# Entry
Amino acid sequence: MAMNMMYFQDALRLEEEHQIIEKAKLNPSHFAPLYKKYYESIFRYINKRVDEEETAYDITSCVFVKALTNINRYEFRGVPFSSWLFRIAKSELYQSFRDQKAKRTVKLDSVQVADMIEDFIEDFSEENKAKLLKCLPMLKENQLQLIEMRFFEKRSFKEIGEIIGLTENNAKVKTFRALVKLKELFNKTK
# Structure
């Protein structure tokens, strides 16, 4: 499984980021490097979950306004700042869904599906790909979110736990259970 190094930062990078955050707490103009670093990934996260790109831009803007407004509440926990941003993004997405401004969607590409299929079936055929795409929406929202973060966004269990408010071990367990459920659905689907 390929890892996105943006999410797996070494201690030096985390410390540098922490210093930028502390500066931003004192002066909002120092928030710009954090915005530049994470805007694209937050936008992609949101855009994969809503139907309209314009809605994704609006929600992404809300995420960064909320982050800047609440930067003094941020507590460093040994994971990238993006974990906190993704929690805000998740909250803003759910608020948007409640407000009926956006409908939940899952946008996948063939590479992501192929990586995931390799984890639990040996035959990567167009038929199995279609079957998997049919099964994903059958999962509960929280199960789908775990699978998306782990397999499509290549996040560590530690970061998944941080984003959704679980321990790293609990994130592993819940992701495993979601994958088991997906396998059950896959095996039942024709």
User: Anything to note?
Assistant: The chain is about 70% helix and 0% strand. Residues 51 and 83 are 24 Å apart (CA to CA).
